[in-house]
């Protein structure tokens, strides 16, 4: 079984933050879409568990809810054929695991969930019809815009979940998973280093 680590949710480039609470619980805010909202895409205002934690100006914006670990069928999608950051996911197979890393405010990076791959829908170039992938953000966007750009969608099986409590991911955790090959330069913060190394999806085994 292989494990992949994918960096998800809003980050330092966005005006919104994913909040971390004192008890370790959190809310993972999705990134905004680059296209205007049109059904069946989601707006942040459509997500009552997340909307209170976002800027008011975001409520009518289309958002990319990916991963979606709270729907009856959890999914995660990525542009594994076109986007260099996701190339490693082309090797993912049923039984593999994708761990999701997110920047939570105000503390840093945390592991926030996982998807145990049960099925893969690869290189989607046209509407695949109705199926387990319907709620995924890539499918929603493609159905709204007509742009089927060879994305992949992974279905989650048993064990897929958004964690109830965020799990810290700092230098010690990074070196435990990836070894000591990362360069922790003195002029860069730990957050900057982790963000740089995890910008692309990384395969552990």
Description:
- The chain is an alpha+beta fold.
- It has one domain.
- 12% of the residues lie in helices and 30% in strands.
- It contains three helices and eleven strands; from the N terminus they run ββββββββαββααβ.
- The chain has helices spanning 137-145, 171-178, 190-197, and strands spanning 3-8, 18-19, 31-32, 42-43, 62-64, 75-78, 97-105, 108-124, 151-156, 161-168, 202-203.
- The longest helix has 9 residues, at 137-145.
- It is globular.
- 35% of the residues are buried.
- Structural class designation: alpha+beta
Estimate nothing, just give the exact number of structural domains.
1
Shape estimate: globular
Number of helices: 3
Order of helices and strands: EEEEEEEEHEEHHE
Q: Could you provide a short overview of the structure?
A:
The chain is an alpha+beta fold and 205 residues long. 12% of the residues lie in helices and 30% in strands.
Identify the notable features of this structure and list them briefly:
globular, alpha+beta, eight-stranded mixed β-sheet, 11 strands, 205 residues
What is the topological layout?
Layout: E1 3-8, E2 18-19, E3 31-32, E4 42-43, E5 62-64, E6 75-78, E7 97-105, E8 108-124, H1 137-145, E9 151-156, E10 161-168, H2 171-178, H3 190-197, E11 202-203
Parallel strand pairs: 1-7, 2-7
Antiparallel strand pairs: 1-11, 3-5, 4-5, 6-9, 7-8, 8-9, 8-10
């Amino acid at each position: 079984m292989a494990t992949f680590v994918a960096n998800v949710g809003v980050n330092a480039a966005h005006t919104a933050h994913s909040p971390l609470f004192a008890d370790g619980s959190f809310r993972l805010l999705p990134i905004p879409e680059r296209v205007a909202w049109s059904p069946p895409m989601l707006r942040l205002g459509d997500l009552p568990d997340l909307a209170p934690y976002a800027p008011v100006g975001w409520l009518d914006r289309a958002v990319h809810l990916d991963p979606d670990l709270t729907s009856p069928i959890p999914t995660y999608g990525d542009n594994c054929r076109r986007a260099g950051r996701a190339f490693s996911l082309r090797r993912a197979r049923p039984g593999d695991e994708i761990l999701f890393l997110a920047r939570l405010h105000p503390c840093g990076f945390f592991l926030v969930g996982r998807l145990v791959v049960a099925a893969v829908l690869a290189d989607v170039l046209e509407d695949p019809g109705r199926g387990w992938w319907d709620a995924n953000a890539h499918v929603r966007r493609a159905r709204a815009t007509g742009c089927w750009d060879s994305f992949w969608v992974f279905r989650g099986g048993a064990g897929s979940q958004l964690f109830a409590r965020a799990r810290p991911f700092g230098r010690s955790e990074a070196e435990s998973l990836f070894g000591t090959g990362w360069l922790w330069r003195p002029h860069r913060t730990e957050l900057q280093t982790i963000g740089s190394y995890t910008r692309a999806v990384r395969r552990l085994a």
